[in-house]
Automatic annotation (TrEMBL):
InterPro entries linked to this entry: Beta-barrel_RND_2 (IPR058792), HH_YbhG-like (IPR059052), RND_pump_MFP (IPR006143), YknX-like_C (IPR058637)
Protein name: RND family efflux transporter MFP subunit
Keywords recorded for this protein, A-Z: Signal
Keyword set includes Transcription regulation: no
């Protein structure tokens, strides 16, 4: 800017001196001082018309992490913003009730297997009598456990019993109920076998018990929720002591190793952008640092609300500096031409509604009308009566006209 002002000042002084000199006498009129100018060249080059679009950084991956086993959270291992590796523990579920479920499932399997053995052995009547005795015993135990649970529940509601006592009574009732149901199933199955003399149903019961046992063991194995990938914890939805579901996310995990910028473009631009294209991306919040963004996806459908198309660009070489939510300026190529004539944008002037440039021919400025085309940040496409390599006035063109005597100062 200082250099430009100095050039303009120099040019102004030159014009003033020229004016003064021309007014002294006819002799001095022939000694008009030339106008000082700076020059550049007419180029033949490729040129691109650039359109800038504002976008926002999004993580390349954003995963909701859901617990495989529901239950009460006993421990949380991570905080929001913490980096994790694939397989790192995120939380652990209390295993007391789950272990009990495994034991119950195993007992049911054992009972079903034993029932199959008895059915196959031919002593089904004796087995049925024994099972009915067991059924009556478990029924009484279940009734007693139910009564105890209901009593503790009333005491709890009145503040006379603790939550631990209530949970213990409830577990006792559920265990007795499960044992009763197991005994009832075994008795009914044996009775059915006696009537049908079929073993297939007993085999199916064993298979069902095996599946239930495997499910219970899997739930126990999955009491610790682990990270499914490397990333950063962006959200945590549970705390220790709270119940976690296997239907709602407990954490949100994002991949920050690769930043992605999302932009929206109009229908006029969408067909000019393809996967693999690379564009300049600038982040104002990072001191206008420039990065290269490569198009990784182009939406085939417009957003009905904005009637724009979503474009996603992966940023290379960002080294973790770029954070989610940052704004970026993406320079898109709106149009491009190869091997065209161009000059610096400042070379072109307007005169009487027409555009022109001034060439330098010896010591004289020569005006050439031009037709302009594409432009980028520095160059402007031009066509007219001139050729590549011609010297064109870059500074001082506002102080000359066709035939003005000039001197080059740069």
């Amino acid at each position: 800017m200082k250099l430009k002002k100095a050039i303009i000042l120099t040019l102004g002084i030159s014009l003033l001196l020229s004016g003064c000199s021309s007014g002294t006498s006819d002799e001095n009129a022939e000694e008009v001082k030339p106008v000082a100018i700076s020059v550049s060249k007419v180029l033949r080059t490729d040129i691109q018309s650039i359109k800038t679009v504002i976008g926002k950084v999004k993580p390349s991956q954003d995963i909701s992490v859901v617990a495989k086993t529901p239950g009460k959270v006993s421990k949380i291992y991570v905080e929001v913003g913490q980096e994790v590796k694939k397989g790192d523990p995120l939380l652990t579920i209390e295993d007391k009730d789950i272990k009990l479920q495994v034991e119950q499932a195993k007992a049911a399997l054992n009972a079903a297997s034993a029932n199959l053995d008895r059915t196959s052995g031919g002593s089904m009547e004796l087995q049925l009598a024994q099972l009915k005795s067991t059924l009556e015993t478990t029924r009484m135990a279940m009734d007693n456990a139910k009564t105890a649970y209901e009593n503790v529940q009333k005491l709890y509601e009145n503040g006379a019993a603790s939550k631990r006592e209530l949970d213990s009574a409830e577990t006792g009732y559920k265990t007795a109920l499960e044992q009763y149901n197991t005994a009832k199933s075994a008795a009914e199955l044996t009775e059915a076998k006696i009537n049908s003399e079929s073993i297939e149903t007993v085999k199916a019961q064993v298979k069902q018990a095996e599946v239930a046992y495997e499910i219970a063991k899997t739930q126990l194995e999955n009491i610790t929720l682990t990270a499914p990938m490397d990333g950063v914890i962006s959200k945590r939805m549970v705390d220790a002591g709270e119940f976690v579901s296997n239907a709602a996310p407990a954490f949100t995990l994002v991949n920050v190793s690769d930043a992605v910028v999302e932009i929206n473009v109009t229908e006029n631009m969408i067909n000019k952008i393809n996967v693999g294209d690379k564009y300049k991306v600038v982040f104002k919040s990072l001191d206008n640092q420039e990065y290269t963004g490569e198009v990784i996806s182009v939406s085939p459908d417009a957003d009905p609300a904005s009637n724009t198309f979503l474009i996603r660009l992966a940023i290379s070489g960002e080294e973790g500096k770029i954070k989610g939510g940052m704004l970026a300026t993406v320079s898109l190529v709106e149009e491009s031409k190869k091997n065209v004539m161009a000059v610096a944008i400042d070379c072109v002037v307007e005169d009487g509604g027409k555009k022109a440039i001034y060439l330098v021919d010896g010591e004289l400025a020569v005006k050439k009308d031009v037709v302009t085309g594409l432009s980028d940040e520095e160059l402007l496409e031009v066509s007219g009566d001139f050729k590549e390599g011609d010297t064109v006035i870059f500074k001082g063109q506002d102080f000359v006209k066709d035939g003005t005597k000039v001197t080059v100062i740069n």
